[in-house]
């Protein structure tokens, strides 16, 4: 079983190096942001959420550590959200390093997070997953997470370029 080890400053900077462009790419892929300003917008969101880095109150950033390998295999970040009496752990990021993917580390990290969240007095774990990320959706469903809302979008073509429906 993996251990969740509080992230150190060096690991935090390494995390931001991969997470900021990765998050920007997810928004580009989902059609939310343009490629021109996506990285800048992503960096601004990370700074807004974590103004004090790993010491931002109410945020918990961990290295996912495999004691058998004696090394980190990824990271997990969640924060406390919601009103008193209905506090939730909201997962902002889960990252498994490429060589360790598809080995059960994500599942183990989520299972290791549950007692940590309970100890903080949190009564649920919530997260957002992009619609195109079917693998993540399958993982969360397998772990007992259920859909709480769905946003949908249809991209409309411009009838002038021969795309889309010209009917009014």
Given the helix and strand composition, which structural class is it? Answer: alpha+beta
Strand content: 15-25%
- The helix fraction, in percent, is 25-40%
Full CATH superfamily name: Gcn5-related N-acetyltransferase (GNAT)
Number of strands: 5
CATH architecture: 3-Layer(aba) Sandwich
Order of helices and strands: EHHEEEHEH
- Uncertain segments are none
Global outline: globular
Q: And the CATH topology?
A: Aminopeptidase
CATH hierarchy class name: Alpha Beta
Instruction: Give the spatial strand order of the biggest sheet.
Output: 1-2-3-4-5
Radius of gyration: 18 Å
Write down the overall mean pLDDT: 91
Main β-sheet description: 5 strands, mixed
How many helix segments? 4
Q: How many individual domains?
A: 1
- Give the end-to-end Cα distance, rounded to a whole number of Å: 58 Å
Secondary structure layout plus pairing:
Elements (H helix, E strand, L loop, with lengths): L2 E4 L2 H21 L8 H12 L9 E8 L4 E11 L6 E9 L8 H15 L4 E4 L6 H9 L26
Parallel strand pairs: 4-5
Antiparallel strand pairs: 1-2, 2-3, 3-4
Tell me briefly what this model is.
Helix content is 34%, strand content 21%.
């Amino acid at each position: 079983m993996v251990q969740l080890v509080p992230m150190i400053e060096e690991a935090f900077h390494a995390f931001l190096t991969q997470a900021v462009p990765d998050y920007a790419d997810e928004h580009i892929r989902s059609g939310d942001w343009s490629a021109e300003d996506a990285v800048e917008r992503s960096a601004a969101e990370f700074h807004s959420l974590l103004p004090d880095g790993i010491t931002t109150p109410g945020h918990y950033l961990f290295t996912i550590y495999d004691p058998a390998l004696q090394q980190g295999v990824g990271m997990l970040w969640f924060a406390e959200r919601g009103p008193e009496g209905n506090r939730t752990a909201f997962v902002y990021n889960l990252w498994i390093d490429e060589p360790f993917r598809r080995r059960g580390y994500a599942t183990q990290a989520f299972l290791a997070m549950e007692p940590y969240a309970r100890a903080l007095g949190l009564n649920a774990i919530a997260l957002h997953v992009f619609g195109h990320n079917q693998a993540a959706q399958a993982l969360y469903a397998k772990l007992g997470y259920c859909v709480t809302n769905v946003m949908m979008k249809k991209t409309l073509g411009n009838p002038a370029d021969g795309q889309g429906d010209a009917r009014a």
